[in-house]
Amino acid sequence: MVTAKEIAGAHGLSPEQLLDLYYKMFLARTVGQRERMLNRMGKGPFAVTGEGHEAAQVGTAYALTPGKDWVLPYYRDIGVALTIGMTPTDLLKAHLARADSIESGGRNMPSHFSSVPLRIVSGSAPVATQYPHAVGVALAAKIRGLDEVAITYVGDGGTSVGDVHESMNFAGIHKLAVIFVCENNQYAISVKWDKQSAVKDVAVRAAGYGFPGVTVDGNDVLAVYAAAKEAVNRARRGEGPTFIEAKTYRIVPHTSDDDDRRYRTAEEVAEWTAKDPLIRYAAWLTDNRVADQKQIEAIQAKALQEVDEATQIAEDAPTPDPASALRHVFVEDK
Amino acid sequence: MVTAKEIAGAHGLSPEQLLDLYYKMFLARTVGQRERMLNRMGKGPFAVTGEGHEAAQVGTAYALTPGKDWVLPYYRDIGVALTIGMTPTDLLKAHLARADSIESGGRNMPSHFSSVPLRIVSGSAPVATQYPHAVGVALAAKIRGLDEVAITYVGDGGTSVGDVHESMNFAGIHKLAVIFVCENNQYAISVKWDKQSAVKDVAVRAAGYGFPGVTVDGNDVLAVYAAAKEAVNRARRGEGPTFIEAKTYRIVPHTSDDDDRRYRTAEEVAEWTAKDPLIRYAAWLTDNRVADQKQIEAIQAKALQEVDEATQIAEDAPTPDPASALRHVFVEDK
Amino acid sequence: MAEKQMIEAVHDAMFEEMKRDSSIIVMGEDVGGGGVFRATEGFKAEFGEARCMDTPLAEAAIVGAAIGASLNGILPIAEMQFADFSHPAFDQIVSEAARLHYRSNGAWSCPITIRTPYGAGIHGGPYHSQSIEAFYAHVPGLKVIAVATPYDAKGLLKSAIRDPNPVLFLEHKKAYRLYRQEIPDDDYTIPIGEADIKREGTDITLVTYGMMVHHSLKAAETLQSEDGVSVEVIDLRSISPWDKERVLESVKKTGKVLIVYEDNITGGFGAEVSATIAQEAFEYLDAPIIRVASPDVPIAPYSGILEEYILPNAEKIAEGARKLAAY
Amino acid sequence: MAEKQMIEAVHDAMFEEMKRDSSIIVMGEDVGGGGVFRATEGFKAEFGEARCMDTPLAEAAIVGAAIGASLNGILPIAEMQFADFSHPAFDQIVSEAARLHYRSNGAWSCPITIRTPYGAGIHGGPYHSQSIEAFYAHVPGLKVIAVATPYDAKGLLKSAIRDPNPVLFLEHKKAYRLYRQEIPDDDYTIPIGEADIKREGTDITLVTYGMMVHHSLKAAETLQSEDGVSVEVIDLRSISPWDKERVLESVKKTGKVLIVYEDNITGGFGAEVSATIAQEAFEYLDAPIIRVASPDVPIAPYSGILEEYILPNAEKIAEGARKLAAY
Ligand SMILES: Cc1ncc(C[n+]2csc(CCOP(=O)(O)OP(=O)(O)O)c2C)c(N)n1
Ligand SMILES: Cc1ncc(C[n+]2csc(CCOP(=O)(O)OP(=O)(O)O)c2C)c(N)n1
Ligand SMILES: [Mg+2]
Ligand SMILES: [Mg+2]
Fold first, then answer.
1. What percent of chain B has pLDDT over 90?
2. What is the mean pLDDT of residues C211-231?
3. Which residues in B lie closer than 8 A to residue C73 (C-beta atoms)?
4. Which of A85, C107, D15, D281 has the fewest CB atoms within 10 Å, measured from its CB?
5. Is the model's pLDDT at D246 over the cut of 80?
6. Are residues B108 and C70, on separate chains, in Cβ contact within 8 Å?
């Protein structure tokens, strides 16, 4: 009988890492649910989370070296932020717009992840503007002779934006160490993919820029990890960019302001909820005897407790001083 | 021995049309040369022309129905404008910024072609902005149930612009009757194609939008015409867009302000001058006995005389009334 | 007469115009589903997908395609989901929509309407709160409107749709569901370029627009009741062209001017209003022209505490008016 | 001291900075070949392709990539080949470069320089002539400079490159080869935010910048010699931040203000200058604040006849100054 070690090894991971993947995914799920709950309780005016995207997010981010590689996520990437090393406390302080939120001190909307030490670059709301930033980061690394990789994320809607084309073209020309990720959940708010593109798999566009584009089951964390790992290796070897399309589904509304019943059926949501990447991966872990049910539940309990503690810390954290709104328009002289 | 009629028929054209193609190409060449000459004489402050592009321009435009189909050219498209029906006088009046220039009355730079009856839409200088306009024109035609085709042009440099991606994506989704042409002369001013794109043939990008992209020898007018004709037929049948990449070369500097010796060798220019689409097509016409040398020369003489007359008319035409600069910012009430 | 919220007035204006003229279409992100603010609720069912078109997420293409469609017999109303997201379309709006008519010597024209929710006060953060009128009022060939009441919204949106020029129509999103107002059931329009005196007064001329109209009216109320100062509140409504005549007339009457806008103070549209008055009504001025606007920080930080600190409100406006009254 | 044209000063400023700091690069269209105005002549030979990088024709990506590179130890100078072609990068400049520092509560910063030739008077038509300072001076988090002399160009470009914030550096293209000026051979900088009194005067304060500085100086000459009127000509040089103090000081001395700019009058930056004076120096004003600028038509029609008609020049400025003097 194959051991957990062998199974893990087949994926280039250790058994601990296989469990760590599940932990990160469950933690992301829990933080997302918590933000939506706090929003419903009226504690935060807005929530945008990534339930359903955990495999795509954790699987890609897990292939990176935190603090060395650069991450330019989009607003749904709770799983990316946590995998790289941001904490539930960081995210919940952002959700509650606390003064010491490392994301923005309450200036940016929640889920606009940022950490200088972790090289998670603060993002904006205009979709896809982070794509050229990732290109620039990688361009700088190339000029400076560093083997750092930049990964950037966008949704399927974002692939329609001109910046995405300009960025992929630029990165292709100079074989930059960029990984372009698209979390294709088949909707841009209410607009279905077939109204956004004439091609089924957006990854085919990479061929037009001279680098590989792969479409992967975005609900299969190990498949996503494998694709990302391969892309990171390519990038480190100086062979240039990779585009990764992770097909997935958001099993929650677009944001706390959205009513998804207006544009999709309960059946469709149910069908995808059944494909929940967490359930699927937990089953895989137990089926392959990497973990038993008790271990899974222990991980869940640990994550839940962390998020409970983080919620407390965040709620207790001070709100910004009103007059501080005037600061940091420009760099302040030391 | 095959007759001229048979040879022409093989291209879906009549012998007269085969000669007409040459006439249009030579006329375009002559107008371009004339504008550069007038510029050197200090009569027009600026000239941008298309010597070398004649086959790509005339060959594509010849497949259209003037006055019915819509044309959104770029600044190098003298051959397109003339083929659709603008006259040398129209172009030279624009070159000299005359008051009655139908392009712009002296407001736009020369070679910013425009004619309402011919459905040649006035363009701007920002590269590629006409691409989405062509999409909109075709969208309107579809909504209104008209079988009009919109053709739009851009250079290789223009293919890097975000608007091009957004336009091709939009047109692909709705299977709009748009023909996207790229006159790939391998340079964006001084920037060689390999610094603009990682792929050799930009036409491959069309696959990413769900419609055909064809790369054609842009110095072979009959090959270009065949590709355009096919694209027009597709569009009229409601089968959607086509992207046509015509590989060619500008055998003159970028504009009257450019010194191309700074970025390309005399050898390279000479090599392509030898591939001159006019010389090549004239040879084809005589080799195939569609015309003899005397006929060719007669066509050249006719074009030259027309351009001489047009020059006279344009030079004699009145300049704009200074105060008219204030008009047409907004639509004037009748 | 029926009581309507501003968002309903916007909805009705488009709905009625599309009923009247089958060449009118709406296009934008999520408009098919009714739009994120429900401005096009029911349009797809009524007019079909072709006339209520969900576009890809690509503002430059939305505006660019609208321009093209307008050349070929279609009258597009293009929606930018938030004003902040019109920035990617800046080139298409400034270089193309606004310049086509002029550059073609009047041969081509571009009768599109671009409508978009703008403005702060809803915890939208720095990308769902911006004012953009100052950018576009500076662009010749473009008309710019900013509304914050149901009546004005309906009458001016109809005028915008019928105008043969490109019009940027700004709807203050905080005003969408602020209150209900009686508006005529039958078709009416409000001429572009006409300001509206929302409150008559004799001591101070307060020039404003957008959401600040409501804050200014409250401030005027306070000054009347607490200080016995009579403030005339002028709602520009049209930013470009704007109603100089009406403003100058009022200034000549009061001799004191307070200009209120939500946008960043530096280079905001209120600067133009002030400069015009300083040149054309200088002799009538009894006091400095005072501007109350947001400080020069990105509008707006997400935190309600920070947002409230930077945005003008009735108190800050009243404070400015008192200074002026005391002068 | 050496005699330099402005384009040479621009070239030298970048060249010297790149010699000093190996993290500085230039990127843009055709910069490798020296640039269409020759600003980067010889850079590729001296610094190599990596530090003098030809980009694809894609302004949003040029600015966006510059932003990204600036986060990872590189100091990019991004060139927009013409100011008119910065429009496609509007979103990257306004939403990203200008807001990154603020939105991250000061954690991230974006020290890029975006330089671009702007302005009319060279028969460039409506797309090679635009002024863009009014758009960007309105954007918090961005610094904006506009120069038209060799000395100012070199000193301020060096300051822009060294500034830890994003700076938009506007070079009036008509001034590139207008004349030669003695400038120091050794390294010098000019503080951003400091205006320069290009001519002292006592009767009228003329506030201007860019190419209009030269026309204004000519007009001031004329007024002195023909009318005996003494005009103080202040060149703002920095548009954001701008030197309020120096301007207000002068206004308090003269009591009369003429504001001159090449851009369209409505919503141009001169409106902000006027509004500031009307609020902060009202008591000192002896006359209306007069603006001389281009009318509200796309700048500029290609025809020299039309272009000359709309652009301000020494005569039009002198006329405005005379009106003011006579007041
Ligand atoms: C440029 C721009 N236009 C519009 C919006 C409004 N908006 C926010 S998210 C969104 C849909 C994005 O969909 P997708 O990229 O698929 O990401 P998802 O939310 O599905 O993960 C839209 C239209 C925006 N933020 N930016
Ligand atoms: C958006 C934009 N950026 C820059 C320019 C300046 N410019 C004019 S033509 C040109 C090169 C265009 O090359 P290409 O598209 O290949 O056309 P070609 O001139 O070779 O026919 C550039 C950079 C412009 N007009 N528009
Ligand atoms: Mg999506
Ligand atoms: Mg080219």
1. 99
2. 98
3. 140, 144
4. A85
5. yes
6. no
Burial A192-229 (b: 16+ CB within 10 A, else e): ebebbbbbeebbbbbbbbbbbbbbbbbbbbbbbbbbbb
Q: What is the pLDDT of residues B121-142, one digit of tens each?
A: 999 999 999 999 999 999 999 9
**Residue owning the nearest CA to atom 3 of ligand 2:** D85
Q: At D214, which helix (H) or strand (E)?
A: helix D212-222
Strands A191-192 and D167-172: unpaired
Give yes or no for residue B279 having a pLDDT over 90: yes
Q: How far does the CA of residue A203 sit from the closest CA of chain B (Å)?
A: 8
Check A70 against D50: CB less than 8 A apart.
no
Helix H or strand E encompassing D275: helix D269-280
3-state SS assignment for residue A90:
helix
Q: What is the ipTM of this complex?
A: 0.99
Give phi and psi for A92, each to the nearest 5.
Answer: -75, -30
Task: Report which bound ligand comes closest to the CA of A160.
Answer: 1
Query: How distant is the Cα of D114 from the closest Cα of chain B, in angstroms?
Result: 18
- State which residues have CB under 5 angstroms from ligand 4, the bound ion: B 155-156, 185, 187
For residue range C233-288, what is the model confidence (pLDDT) as tens digits? 999 999 999 999 999 999 999 999 999 999 999 999 999 999 999 999 999 999 99
Buried b (16+ CB within 10 A) or exposed e, B120-129: bbbbbbbbbb
Q: Which of A101, A131, A133 to mutate to test the interface with D (most CBs of D within 10 A)?
A: A133
Q: Are D91 and A129 in contact (CB under 8 A)?
A: yes
Is D128 catalytic? The answer is: yes
Question: From CA D268, how far away is CA C275, in angstroms rounded?
Answer: 10
**Residue A117 pLDDT class (50, 70, 90 cuts):** very high
Ligand 2 site, residue B124, Cβ cutoff 6 A: no
| Tokens standing for residue D2 | 């050496």
- What's the angle, vertex CA C270, arms to CA C267 and CA C271, rounded to 5? 50
CB B157 within 8 A of CB B189: yes
Q: Give yes or no for a contact between A118 and A67, defined as CB atoms under 8 angstroms apart.
A: yes
Which residue has a Cα nearest atom 20 of ligand 2?
B188
